[in-house]
Design goal:
With 257 residues, the protein is α/β, with parallel strands linked by helices. It has one domain: Rossmann fold (3-Layer(aba) Sandwich), CATH 3.40.50. Strands 3-2-1-4-5-6-7 form a seven-stranded parallel beta sheet, sandwiched between helices. α4 links the parallel β4 and β5. α1 packs parallel to α2 and α3 runs parallel beside α4. Bound molecules: nicotinamide-adenine-dinucleotide. Nicotinamide-adenine-dinucleotide binds next to α1 and α7.
Length: 257
């Protein structure tokens, strides 16, 4: 229960899915959470789950990650309350489908701004604090960053950028004692696919198909990603940096045959 005792941990996109599950998990292990999202009532729900799991009341920051001044406010509010930052979990992200034949530049910009630019900005701002605390970063990438799938072009490009960002920043900050890693989930049951345009029927078929597309024969659960994030963020991973860790039921290792 004390892995993250008194560690100040920022989790973006904490109002749902992997971010919410991760925030509850890390708080349950003693972390002092800063939960970031756009939806106040959903953030409140995450805060209630944290307290119910035995965690301390988190700091809630309402921010749209694509707005520079709101991203700045995350750091200002965190330092005003806690005076330090130990862990940054860059989780907020969106999924949109489309190929080179039908993905507009507007869509491309939206995906890159949300999944890459905002993460770049927040990491820039938090880095000086992580150097002081010898803290670490965990980025939430995707199997789509490691492997290529047709029809999810801009999303795949954004997640490949997250993996390259992870490795480059890991090398840049290693001499300063800051570790930087990523998790690369396969299909995890959250709202992201429906938010990305799938209706109930298509989503049910998609989950069924996961039996074939994931070696372990099923989609994953938010808690399985939260556990991997917690490992990378903890001292148990003290000699790991620049890692993109698949949490995907073996999907990254599969080849069609
Ligand atoms: P989700 O939609 O439940 O969570 C994404 C969160 O990011 C939401 O809370 C959303 O509000 C937030 N967000 C999106 N745009 C934002 C913005 N502009 N400002 C602030 N917050 C914003 O879905 P999830 O599956 O939990 O996704 C979390 C991360 O996991 C994403 O980066 C996603 O790409 C990644 N991921 C998910 C899966 C999956 O199958 N669920 C697989 C691989 C990677």
């Amino acid at each position: 229960m004390s892995t993250f005792k008194d560690k100040v941990i920022i989790v973006t996109g904490a109002s749902s899915g992997i971010g919410a599950g991760c925030a509850v998990h890390l708080a349950g292990h003693g972390g002092l959470l800063v939960i970031v999202g756009r939806n106040a009532s959903n953030l409140k729900e995450t805060a209630e789950k944290i307290v119910a799991a035995g965690g301390s009341e988190p700091l809630k920051v309402i921010a749209d990650m694509t707005k520079e001044s709101e991203v700045e406010e995350i750091v200002t509010a965190t330092l005003a309350k806690y005076g330090r930052i130990d862990v940054l979990v860059n989780n907020a992200g969106i999924l949109e489908t489309g190929s080179i034949e039908n993905t507009s530049l507007e869509q491309f910009d939206r995906l890159m701004n949300t999944n890459v630019r905002s993460l770049y900005q927040l990491t820039m701002l938090v880095t000086p604090e992580l150097i002081k605390t010898k803290g670490n970063i965990v980025n939430v990438s995707s199997v789509c960053g490691l492997r290529s799938f047709p029809g999810v072009l801009a999303y795949n490009v954004s997640k490949a950028a997250v993996d390259q960002f992870t490795a480059c920043v890991a090398l840049e900050l290693a001499p300063k004692g800051v570790r930087v890693n990523a998790v690369n989930p396969g299909v995890i049951i959250t709202d992201i696919h429906k938010r990305g345009g799938m209706d109930e029927e298509a989503y049910a078929k998609f989950l069924e198909h996961c039996k074939v597309t994931h070696a372990l024969g099923r989609p994953g659960d938010v808690n399985e990603v939260a556990a991997a994030i917690a490992f990378l963020a903890s001292d148990a991973a003290s000699f790991s940096t620049g890692v993109s860790l698949p949490v995907d039921g073996g999907r990254h290792a599969m080849c069609p045959r």
